[in-house]
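Researcher: Go.
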Amino acid sequence: MIKSIPGGGNLSRYHDGRLNRDVVKIKPGEFFATTRPYVIATVLGSCVSACIRDPQRGSAGMNHFMLPDEGTSGGGSASLRYGVFAMESLINEFVRHGSARGDLEAKVFGGASVVSAIRTDVGGQNADFVVKYLALEGIRTTAVDLGGLVARKVLFFAEDGRVWVKYLWRDVNDTIERREDEYARALTVKPDPAPVELF
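Model: Structure:
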């Protein structure tokens, strides 16, 4: 199974010689799922990513969302920028390929307090949302690294579920904050609705 972002966008792919792996990089509002031995990479500030895997079927995927739900920004669109749609979109890929929710396991990362453009603690809200969502859906969580004040680079090894996390200190954190500020401001513009099939 290979899934790129909806809407015809292209995900960034490259070969990492040090890892000897092909890497797929996802940004806010994107997700990727596969049965191939990719490394799925992202950088998180206040955003959250869920790394989900079906160990029986060898499928794995990651999403990257900025807000827990539509109410946070006052928007009204079904979009992968929101946690509920990002989670359902990724999980639906597994369900379409034979997984039940109970077959899945998740590792969750991000939710740091790095964005000043949003006055509420969006990182904390994202973290709280993803933990509650997975519990409600009956998906076992095997690792949690949420909150704090530091951005993270996350590498998810699809073939075995390993995750490497690198903490990005202040000099890099400033770049992450600027990017997330820009993305947060862009959320005030409603995108075209993206339907999500709920199982």
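Model: The chain has one domain: 2-186.
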